[in-house]
Write a structure and sequence with these properties.
mainly beta, Jelly Rolls, 6-stranded mixed beta sheet, 3 helices, globular
Length: 385
């Protein structure tokens, strides 16, 4: 999750956005003293932003869910058009934060974001859905950046690139709390570095999120009511909201050519899912980031151009606590008609072995927002070719 300016590719008509919102009023967000940063570009400015007080995730869980997605809205006080060139998420209680994503709220959507925040007295709101559509899924909000367990370091845009932030924009921060790891009060923040757009001559940094649908039956010999796929999906909706089923069905439908939920690809105790997505324009690919949850074993993200296959990222031994972006081979270009293939392999037996999961009821595992659910996500960063 190191790139920004994103789009998520599901089908010609479907874009998936994960979302968040911080607090819109100056009284409901805090900013560190703004400082001049030493950067290769002149007039770089760095500020740290976050909620004014701690948030207790345990108070926001519903229907016995062990996951909370909370959105906070902050105002970076942009008086001129700027480019974001570096960002860093600063988790408060690191063990409880499953991941975080921060989003751009352009001036045209500021009123909507402020109204959402005002509905919770400036304390942010629950947002399993998208930042400006917290009970839905597809609002195509621009990702500025994010964090998943691994190094807590600045995410610097590749040289010569940045993400546009128009004057007056706000930032929404979505934090996913994993209550299996605790419920202590948290006050996470985000640090961003921007430069004036005028005279910067930067290329717009984009990302595309390529997904595949995990379908992991209960292992042989493991039984329980939630081992039934439909019962598990009903429980997922109860825990995270109706948008979960909409998104799951969209991914399953878009990947039908590569994946059959009724016949998962099972080899021994491992289960694999694969999905290919068409590229619509010429892109200079810079790097890619694999992402799964706790049952993930390996993942690959591959550019397919005719008979040529270029590995953009490959993690042979996936570690949820060490998620990083991998640089693509120098000069990698994708063209309209090429495909990006994402493939993930899981070990469902880990659900009965991992300390954080073995006390949970056995279940058929599908795509879902919860830490005990799964994902197969490949984030690819690029600029126009």
């Amino acid at each position: 999750m190191n790139f920004g300016g994103s789009r998520i590719r599901l089908s010609a008509a479907v874009c998936v956005a994960m979302a968040a919102a911080l607090s819109a009023c100056s009284s409901s967000s805090t900013s560190s003293t703004t400082t001049r940063a030493s950067a290769t570009l002149e007039s770089a400015t760095t500020g740290t932003f976050g909620p004014p007080s701690t948030f207790s995730p345990g108070t926001a869980a519903v229907n016995s869910s062990t996951d909370v997605y909370h959105c906070f809205l902050v105002d970076p006080k942009l008086t001129t058009d700027r480019y974001l060139v570096s960002s860093q998420f600063l988790p408060g209680v690191t063990k409880e934060v499953h991941h975080a994503i921060y989003f751009l709220i352009p001036p045209s959507q500021v009123a909507e974001a402020r109204a959402l925040d005002a509905s919770s007295q400036g304390k942010g709101w629950s947002c399993f859905g998208a930042p400006l559509n917290p009970t839905g899924t597809f609002d195509n909000t621009t990702w500025l950046g994010g964090w998943a367990p691994g190094p807590t370091v600045p995410r610097v845009a590749p040289k010569g690139t940045g993400i546009s932030m128009p004057a007056g924009s706000l930032v929404v921060m979505q934090v996913h709390y994993n209550l299996l790891n605790g419920t202590a009060p948290d006050q996470s923040r985000v640090k961003i570095t921007t430069v004036p757009a005028a005279g910067a001559h930067l290329q717009e940094l984009e990302t595309t999120k390529y997904v595949a649908p995990p379908d992991l039956p209960c292992p042989t010999g493991v039984t329980g009511p939630l081992c039934d796929r439909q019962a598990s999906i009903d429980d997922l909706v109860a825990r995270t909201g109706p948008q979960a089923k909409v998104l799951l069905n969209a991914i399953e439908g878009a990947c039908r050519g590569d994946h059959d939920a009724a016949q998962p690809q099972i080899t021994g105790k491992l289960v694999t899912t694969t999905c290919s997505w068409s590229v619509s324009k010429t892109e200079h690919i810079l790097g890619a980031t694999p992402h799964m949850h706790l049952l993930g074993q390996s993942e690959s993200i591959t550019l397919v151009s005719g008979s040529t296959r270029t590995v953009l990222a490959k993690t042979a031994h996936y570690n949820f606590d060490d998620q990083t972006t991998q640089a693509a081979p120098a000069g990698t270009m994708a063209h309209a008609g090429d495909k990006v293939e994402v493939s993930c392999t899981y070990d469902p037996t880990l659900r009965q072995e991992l300390p954080s999961m073995r006390k949970l009821p056995a279940r058929y595992v599908t795509w879902g927002d919860g830490s005990s659910d799964e994902m197969c996500l490949g984030t690819v960063g690029w600029v126009a070719g």
